[in-house]
Amino acid sequence: MPQPMASGREFHCVMSGEATSPEHPAHAYYTERYRNLRRFYTAVFTALAERGELRSPVAPAVLATMTISLLNGLQAQWLHDRGTVDMAGSLHAFPVTFVPAVGD
């Protein structure tokens, strides 16, 4: 029996992949969803930079895109190899590399 969390992740991965086609009924939804996520993470990273807490030469908007890419990639990898891929550990380790306070 699939884990409840897994079935939601599976649905998201399949739908977001299929919705890359402009003709797909969910295309506009996923386009806006990713725009909103990029705006959110860009705002977070910009605020951290303004407070001197961001330690990265990478622009906040690029970090936002990288963060979303990491989330999507980890979900897909975890769905393929649940016993090996440590989503939580990877999600925690990534921001520690440019926001040291996350590791505290």
TrEMBL record:
What Gene3D superfamilies does the record point to?
Tetracycline Repressor, domain 2
Q: Which domain of life is it from?
A: Bacteria
Against InterPro entries, the record matches this protein to: BetI_C (IPR039538), Tet_transcr_reg_TetR-rel_C_sf (IPR036271)
What region holds the BetI-type transcriptional repressor C-terminal domain? 30-86
One Pfam family from the record: TetR_C_6
Report what the protein is called.
BetI-type transcriptional repressor C-terminal domain-containing protein
